[in-house]
Amino acid sequence: MLFARSYASRATVLVVLGLAALGVGTVWAVGPDSRPTTRDPARFADEISRFAEWDRKNSFPKDAILFVGSSSIRMWPTRESFPRWPVINRGFGGSHICDVNHYFKQVVEPYRAKVIVFYAGDNDIADGATPEQVRDDFAAFVRLVRAGQRETPIVFLSIKPSPSRWAHWPQM
Question: Are residues 137 and 35 in contact, defined by beta-carbon separation less than 8 angstroms?
């Protein structure tokens, strides 16, 4: 039975990784401590409150794939894209990685996800963060996840090229 659960878990991770790679690409990252946010995360308070309100009125699936990050996650029809798996989408548009970290207890921790799919970073770079700051903020996210879910796979979707942000592509 342990082998079957382990195999199913590995198979789920491999499928998610494969599908994510088709859409954007994946990168694994680690790094030192995160920088403090230079923008006020309170700008997302209403959106985060809507997530909490939805959670109070509805049940969320157990052992789900949690999609979290900026508008590329928010606008991705994750339920339709992954119809065979339970998914939770907690993307909030315009966010930086440090914003996701700030709201970690609301947008990641409650769900005890089987896999976390993370996309953010292009807003950070466009607003002046360095690639090292993006790396460090993602490393802080990983530490937050690992503090409560040591074995949960994290899929980091790499920053995608965008015509409106092409000038930032070398840093991305």
Answer: yes
Structure tokens at 134: 């993006």
Structural class in CATH, domain 42-168: alpha beta
Q: Which residue has the tokens 């996840």?
A: 145
Q: How far apart are CA 7 and CA 45, in angstroms?
A: 39
Average of per-residue pLDDT across 36-47: 76
Q: Evaluate if residue 97 carries a pLDDT over 60.
A: yes
Domain ranges of the chain: 42-168
Please write down the HEC assignment for all residues of the chain. Answer: CHHHHHHHHHHHHHHHHHHHHHHCCEECCCCCCCCCCCCCHHHHHHHHHHHHHHHHHCCCCCCCEEEEECHHHHCCCHHHHCCCCCEEEEECCCCCHHHHHHCHHHHCHHHCCCEEEEECCHHHHHCCCCHHHHHHHHHHHHHHHHHHCCCCCEEEECCCCCHHHHHHCCCC
Residue type, 12: T
102-135, pLDDT tens digit by residue?
Answer: 999 999 999 999 999 999 988 888 899 899 999 9
